From TrEMBL:
Similarity comment: family membership: Belongs to the glycosyl hydrolase 1 family.
Reaction equation(s) it catalyzes: Hydrolysis of terminal, non-reducing beta-D-glucosyl residues with release of beta-D-glucose
Active-site feature positions: E175, E394
Protein's GO biological process: cellulose catabolic process
Binding site for substrate: Q30, H130, N174, Y315, W440, E447, W448
Keywords from the UniProt entry: Carbohydrate metabolism, Cellulose degradation, Glycosidase, Hydrolase, Polysaccharide degradation
Classification via SUPFAM superfamilies: (Trans)glycosidases
Top-level EC class: hydrolase
EC number assigned by the record: 3.2.1.21
Annotated protein name in UniProt: Beta-glucosidase
């Protein structure tokens, strides 16, 4: 007897709203390779991957998934999986090499990709900045300089002018928290600067760039009435104290929420920075000045432009304990993994926490699996921030997958995605407007600090042969997307 499929057991399913988008996401530097082709210049990640010890096994994105040369075949894979949308990023150093004038050849690649997607019936969803700042702009100060936000507008407009006739969904930034705080506070990501409160300066300029782009695109007719949708993607978390009876832990959770969630949500959705963010960072300086010095009159109005959608990336919640906290390393999350040492510096200026194990199951990355927190997060965005329609623009799990007899039995990933899809449905049932879900990632790829050792794809990539194998999770996702429903 064959096992029942979704269509055979129509009563035993939980349905998603009509027109729910089923997608998968990637990012340029993580998959494209071809780093020196057709005029592309060096980005901060090309530079950072050369820093000894920065990336596990010294991996780089030089070749990655060789997607730049294999794009049509990869789009065919998306079609085979039945994706209704594909979220990718454009590479700034391809389109505006060295942050300068437009490079037609760089744009052509994304134009061909867009046409290929549309021909396959897949809705393109573009992200303008997924962390690959041209090195030349970093050399001039990077995101701690206001001018970088202005250069971002030039690049964004060039991209929109070339692709806006065919692409409706535009995201300015992916996870500006990582760009700002991993890039400029703890240095675990490119450009690798460990400059404390510089992270908030960078966050402000990233958001300023976002707001300026939204303003300019609106004036070019990118409005909902014209079928265009503009947004930003944030990696948000839910912060709970490890010991609710310990006041220092309660304070740690509040601080983490401030320096991770509200530092973006408040300016973007309320046009303000919270009082406790100012208080928690009082006395910290970057280049001798407090971060607030870089917030000029009118900036918050620009940042708080109304958005059509909010992208939410979610991997796990956070349950901090305040230091000093006495625990054996094995009792702390992440302690078993050999990650780059620099990533362990606090990315939270003025605050430092540890993350003790709470006893919940973990995945191969040693991240606790916390789907109920996704429901809480979505409800909070709805209740406290009156957020615009939400798309889950990334969610997924790392596992050390292997190909056996032509298949990859990634049960843990399938279960992870399934649990989080139920969490999304729980939020929808509670009245939150969630309109799509993009699994991270389409392909195993260059996972930043973790290089190629850590696999997130629903498609396995053999990095020696570039052979692709659909994992069991992809076959399952195909069924769910086709039925627009989860089996019970
Ligand atoms: C997000 C990024 C993705 C992706 C994923 C897993 O932060 O937007 O680009 O890489 O997380 O990341 P990592 O392997 O670095 O933890």
């Amino acid at each position: 007897m064959t096992s029942p499929t979704i269509s055979q057991t129509v009563t035993d399913v939980r349905r998603f709203p009509a027109d729910f988008l089923w997608g998968s996401a990637t990012a340029a530097y993580q998959i494209e390779g071809a780093v020196a082709e057709d005029g592309r210049t060096v980005s901060i990640w090309d530079t950072f991957t050369r820093v000894p010890g920065a990336i596990l096994n010294g991996d780089t994105g030089d070749i990655a998934c060789d997607h730049y040369h294999r794009m049509p075949a990869d789009v065919a894979l998306m079609k085979e999986i039945g994706l209704s949308s594909y979220r990718f990023s454009t590479a700034w150093p391809r389109i505006c090499p060295d942050g300068g004038p437009v490079n037609r050849k760089g744009l052509d690649f994304y134009s061909r990709l867009t046409d290929e997607l549309l021909a396959a019936g897949i809705t393109p969803w573009v992200t303008l900045y997924h962390w690959d700042l041209p090195q030349t702009l970093e050399d001039a100060g990077g995101w701690t300089e206001r001018d970088t936000a202005l250069r971002f507008v030039d690049y964004a407009l060039a991209t929109y002018d070339a692709l806006g006739d065919r692409i409706d969904h535009w995201t300015t930034h992916n996870e500006p928290w990582c760009s700002a705080f991993m890039g400029y506070s703890n240095g675990g990501h490119a450009p690798g600067r460990q400059e404390g409160v510089a992270g908030i300066v960078a966050a402000h300029h990233l958001m300023l760039g976002h707001g300026l782009v939204v303003e300019e695109l609106r004036s070019r007719g990118a409005t909902a009435a014209n079928g265009k949708s503009l947004g930003i993607t944030l990696n948000l978390t839910v912060a709970d104290p490890f010991d609710p009876a310990r006041p220092a832990d309660v304070d740690a959770a509040r601080r983490l929420d401030g320096l991770h969630n509200r530092v973006f949500l408040d300016p973007l959705l309320r046009g303000t920075y919270a009082d406790d963010l100012h208080a928690d960072t009082a006395g910290l300086t970057f280049q001798g000045r407090p971060w607030e010095d870089r917030v000029l009159d009118g900036d918050l109005e620009i940042i708080a432009q109304p958005l059509d959608v909010l992208g939410v990336n979610f991997y796990h919640d956070d349950v901090p304990a305040a230091r000093p906290y006495d625990a054996a390393p094995a009792d702390l999350l992440g302690s078993r993994l050999v990650g780059p040492e620099r990533s362990r510096q606090t990315p939270y200026p003025g605050s430092d926490f540890v993350f003790p194990r709470t006893g919940r199951p973990t995945n191969d990355r040693d991240w606790e699996i916390t789907p109920a927190s996704l429901t809480r997060l979505l409800q909070r965005l709805h209740d406290d921030y009156a957020a615009p329609p939400i798309y889950i623009t990334e969610n997924g799990a790392m596992s050390f997958d292997v190909v056996e007899d032509g298949a990859v039995h990634d049960v843990a990933r399938r279960e992870f995605i399934e649990a989080h899809l139920h969490a999304v449905l729980d939020a929808i049932d509670a009245g939150v407007d969630v309109r799509g879900y993009f699994v991270w990632s389409l392909l195993d790829n260059f996972e930043w600090s973790y290089g190629y050792a850590h696999r997130f794809g629903i498609v396995h990539v053999d990095f020696d042969t570039q052979n692709r194998t659909l994992k069991d999770s992809a076959l399952w996702f195909k069924q769910v997307a086709a039925g627009n429903a989860l089996p019970l």
